[in-house]
Design a protein that fits this description.
Elements (H helix, E strand, L loop, with lengths): L1 E2 L21 E9 L8 E4 L5 H11 L9 E8 L7 E5 L9 E7 L4 H4 L3 H13 L3 E7 L3 H7 L6 E2 L5 E2 L4 E4 L4 E3 L2 H11 L37 H15 L16 H12 L11 H22 L15 H16 L2 H9 L4 H8 L8
Parallel strand pairs: 1-2, 6-7
Antiparallel strand pairs: 2-4, 3-5, 4-5, 6-10, 8-9, 10-11
Helix pairs in contact: 3-5, 3-9, 6-9
InterPro entries: Glutathione-S-Trfase_C_sf (IPR036282), Glutathione_S-Trfase_N (IPR004045), GST_UstS-like_C (IPR054416), Thioredoxin-like_sf (IPR036249)
Pfam family, one: GST_N_2
Protein name: GST N-terminal domain-containing protein
Length: about 375
Amino acid sequence: MREFPALQCLQSNAEVHPTHTCAPVEDERLVVTLPNSPAKGGRIYSSTASSKRRDNRLKRLHGGPRYCSPVVILHLHQATCKGETSIDLLPAMSSNSQPIVFYDIAMRPPVEKNCCSPNPWKARLALNFKAVPYTTKWVPLPDVAKVRSGLKVPAVRKFADGSDFYTLPIIQDPATNSAVGDSYDIAVYLQKTYPDSGAGDLFPDQKLDYTFTPDSEIAVPLSEVPQSGFIEYAKFNVNVDAAFSTHVQLSTQEFPFDPATAEISKAEFVRRAGVSSWDDFALVGEAREKVKEGLRKTLGELAKLFLRDNSGPFIMGTRATYADLIVGAWLRMMRATLPSSEWEELRSWHDGIFAKLHDALDVYAEVK
């Protein structure tokens, strides 16, 4: 397999000037990178083809979802040389031009504004980072277990009593006929399946030596660290989840439940926590200030990672990675669930490090 750099489709009116010479070759596989172009099916003709027909093919190819640098697999068919070389374009991003389906939890309408679950936010940020086309399917909170079971995606976490913890996100990718959940597994899948798409590598090598040990048991089971893959990021994910989950009680009273399912959802959380009512989660007065101060100190330790490279708002300075998306997803939850005055207070902590991170990730925060 060799590169065929002459095919460049930077804009819909771009000219194509292939340099490949016509020679009697069997079906030869070629790779071409099309920056800023979609990976749709079609046919591009070489310079021996008429310019009008070539331009029409290009116009049909260009358009639709924007990709930064998808790699498209081509087949060059040259059984004979009769004055024209044709190249069949096979889409690499999706075998049938269908977008990925991303399953997120439906909150209070408008759902696009109020979506706040941190793990789905990790997946959304990763999908936007990789610039792959997707649509969101909103799932009522009481239906999550049924939907996940129906998609035949097994639960990967369990409650303390051994029962399965069914949660979102999940993605379905028609290009590979794959269904993947949870958020970390989705990020790994996107990186391995679309390594050169969007902003590039989600998992570049870096030292993520942040640890957090909770003082008490966390009610919601956390992800387990896998035995292979991007272990440094997996460990970081678990520690960040633990850090924010320990203080998540700050978010309960402003949580934007869908009114249609709010009472059922609250009853389930009450059952899991072993308390008598939803009001038992309320934090007021001195008790709230104590938990808030605990979060401030916890984020102070996390902020040290972002001080290593002050060239930008991310841990690696100007380069965003999945580690930044993990923290950013939790910040999205805090923005949606804290009282506005407390969110502004959080933004001011530690010289505004987390405000800068949150705002810098706006570029990947589109809700589709």
